[in-house]
Amino acid sequence: MEQLKEKVAAEQKGLKPLLSMEYHELEAWLKEEGEPAFRAKQIFEWVYQKRVERFEDMTNLSKALREKLASHFSLRVLSEIVMQESTDGTMKFLYELPDGYSIETVLMNHEYGNSVCVTTQVGCRLGCTFCASTLGGLKRNLTAGEIVAQVLEVQRRLDEKGERVDSVVIMGIGEPFDNYDELMPFLRLINHDQALNIGARHITVSTSGVVPRIYEFADEKTQINFAVSLHAPTTEIRSRLMPVNRAWPLEKLMDSIRYYQEKTNRRITFEYGLFGGVNDQVEHAHQLADLIHGLKCHVNLIPVNDVPERDYVRTSRDDIFAFEKTLKDRGVNVTIRREQGHDIDAACGQLRAKERSEETE
């Protein structure tokens, strides 16, 4: 692997990924190096607007500064292994990281624009029983720069069509709040007006229920959208589907969600995957309506994609609509997620499990 060799050489030189640098951090570094702080704006423009891949192409910087940047930082951290494109236009990318591990990123086209779903970890330790991302456990956290790089790589694809990334969802492989210290710089970077300038209300973070981080995220008081992968109306069912519920039971999760809403007054999205015979009956819909009563929220019903490594049965069409109707009759704001990528390895972690089985065993 040529890129892996380059990474080893880069690490020996002590290079830091430039994409992990926040704007103020780059300004501070420039000052330490005797360079004016305004160079940060020029560098960010080259990286995030012009999307260059080599420091030598930053032609309005002095040769000395370009050489200094090259001696301290690496610029591109992902290489594409596989790209699958669905008939509906959904594109799923499998990228290789410098250390040889792989991650998934998805580009989805909606009527409101292009949305990118990014990964925050190589694998996942939470063990949700319906998810291919957990196969093989957690290998490591991604750096902020490695998460940023996913958005940039997709944007390069969109550049070919004269389009841009309109929104970002943090719902790929891994639990974002399990990598909180790298997640937050990533969010600030893609939102920064000198970087990708993606509006906070066009960014959505989803968690499986890492309760301490929900309190911390609430105290950040950002305008970023917040989603919770709920998937069950009772703690018993949730523990069966999501082992994270054993660490932070449903009651404690709901307490943290109420705290978040009190702090931010922002609407919460509940992601609710429908699993045949497990959580998809009318009685479950009533239990869900009781659970979320009084919250300003939206429920996103997700007919689950089949994952060969898991045994759950897809909910019937009639049961899906009966569940939706029950929630609507109870006054719940609810939609059924439009399926995308049904003809490719669309389920989270599925492409990685197929192409890099050695990582998921």
UniProtKB/TrEMBL annotation:
S-adenosyl-L-methionine binds at G174, E175, S206, S229, L230, H231, N305. Its EC number is 2.1.1.192. InterPro entries: Aldolase_TIM, Methyltransferase_A, RlmN_N, RNA_MTrfase_RlmN, rRNA_lsu_MTrfase_RlmN/Cfr, rSAM, rSAM_sf. It comes from the Bacteria. GO terms for cellular component: cytoplasm. One of its GO terms (molecular function) is tRNA (adenine(37)-C2)-methyltransferase activity. CDD domains: Radical_SAM. Specifically methylates position 2 of adenine 2503 in 23S rRNA and position 2 of adenine 37 in tRNAs. Belongs to the radical SAM superfamily. RlmN family. This is Probable dual-specificity RNA methyltransferase RlmN. The gene is rlmN.
